[in-house]
Amino acid sequence: MGGSAWADPVVLNVVDVAGNLALTQKAIEAFRDKYPNLVSQVTFTNAPAPQLPGKIKAMQGAGRSDIDLVLTGTDALAAGIEQNLWMPLLPDRAKDFPGVLDKYAPNPRKMQDLAQGQGLEVSFMAAGPLIEYNPAHVSDPPKTTDQLLAWCKAHPDKLIYARPANSGAGRAFLMGLPYLLGDKDPHDPIHGWDKTWAYLKQLDSCIPYYPGGTSAVMKELGEGSRDMTLTVTGWDINPRALGVVPAEFKVQAFDNQTWVNDAHFMVIPKGVAPEKLPVLIKLMNFLLEPQQQAMTYDDGYFYPGPAVKDVPLSAAPQHSQDVLKKYGRPEYDQLIASHPNVVPLDAKAMVAAFHKWDQDIGAQKTK
Q1: Which residues pair with 159 in a beta bridge?
Q2: What are the two backbone dihedrals, phi and then psi, of residue 298, each rounded to the nearest 5 degrees?
Q3: What does the alpha-carbon distance between residue 72 and residue 358 come to, in Å, rounded to a whole number?
Q4: Distance from C-alpha of 293 to C-alpha of 27, rounded to nearest angstrom
Q5: Which of 57, 137, 153, 186 is deepest in the core (most CB within 10 A)?
Q6: At what angle do helices 233-241 and 318-327 cross, to 10 degrees?
Q7: Per-residue b or e along 168-185, where b marks 16 or more CB atoms closer than 10 Å to that residue's CB
């Protein structure tokens, strides 16, 4: 880098395939404003998770990199690990991220292992699966998988969920079922999920179609064309806070609830310009500081939000506190604490599960 440690300020191109910017964009802009000598500009782009890995692979093949930082859920994280797209961070660059693994709270710390050292978790959601329903039309919500199937068959076309490959809520349901149904091996979708695939095929008989993302599901639920969906904490709270779904809609946990947690990660595609790397490392460390982590409570979109320990809701901006007071569910913290929390499938298994779902369940009905 020549005589000085830092070259000219750089432009950072951030791509979000997880809806994570809702939680982090203000903090990234704060970093830009705090360090004008390092960052001249940040561009923000949103893209669908399934399309990102192919795009990055093509860029890397052409020897150019227009993407410096990716904010991703477990979906594109997994696909990118599979295809060797991400720069290894730990243990390779451990000195750049001092003590980072000790900063995470216990459940988020387990989620960090999914990155296989190729990314850093930036936000955490206890997730689900949970049943969300319109209480005006559902007086006795299902509490078990059998009851859910019976309800669906008695009310065809009134239950809906989104394609798991592009929906955190759909994904939590898909990965939660092996636990709820007592399948042979919840970590092996191909050989250990006989009950899960059989159940999803039965459920398919009363589901009209599978939207391409959770937003479309919530729109239909809110408009009243559906009465029930499978959701996660954030997708319950936030659409109600935004008025997409009526505030009085309710959620029901399963009697034998197992929480399949979710997280967002920061990853750097291989081939990033060398002068940008020190700035990206500084930004990633900045986003893990308690003050920035407190902003991830946001509007309950990824509840609770913070991945690091000791960031209570009382540390969040007042607006977040107000939203969660009004639209949050007091029972969530108790439910999360009193039922098992597990990590989702690892990269290879998740890709296999999405593929099998797309082929066997969604193929005829995904829009």
Answers
A1: 228
A2: 40, -130
A3: 21
A4: 9
A5: 186
A6: 100
A7: bbbbbbbbbbbbbbebee
Ranges of H-type helices in the chain: 21-34, 52-61, 74-82, 100-103, 106-112, 145-154, 168-180, 194-204, 214-223, 233-241, 277-287, 290-294, 318-327, 331-338, 347-357
Q: What confidence tier does 5 reach under pLDDT thresholds 50, 70, 90? A: low
Give the residue from 119, 112, 123 showing the smallest Cα distance to 27: 123
pLDDT, residue 50, reads: 84
How far is the C-alpha of 247 from the C-alpha of 224, rounded, in Å? 13
Q: What angle do CA 121, 127, 128 make, to 5 degrees?
A: 150
Answer positive or negative: Cα dihedral of 234, 239, 240, 241: positive
The type of residue at 185 is D
Peptide bond before residue 340 is cis, with ω within 30 degrees of 0: no
pLDDT for 179-206, tens place per residue? Answer: 999 999 999 999 999 999 999 999 999 9
Give burial (CB, 10 Å; 0-12/13-18/19+) of 112. Answer: buried
Residue 259 pLDDT greater than 90, yes or no: yes
Query: What burial class does residue 279 get, using C-beta atoms within 10 Å of its C-beta: 0-12 exposed, 13-18 middle, 19+ buried?
Result: buried
Tokens 């729109």, residue located? 219
Q: Is 133 exposed, middle or buried (0-12, 13-18, 19+ CB in 10 A)?
A: buried
pLDDT of residue 367: 64
Dihedrals phi, psi of 45, to nearest 5 degrees: -130, 140
Q: Quick one: average pLDDT of 142-164?
A: 98
pLDDT, tens digit (0-9, with 9 covering 90-100), for 318-344: 999 999 999 999 999 999 999 999 999
What pLDDT, on a 0 to 100 scale, did the predictor assign at position 282? 98
**What does the block give as tokens for 364?**
């005829």
Share of the chain residues as helix, strand and coil, in percent rounded to the nearest 5: 45, 15, 40
Regarding beta strands 10-16 and 69-72, do their DSSP bridges make them parallel or antiparallel, or are they unpaired? Answer: parallel
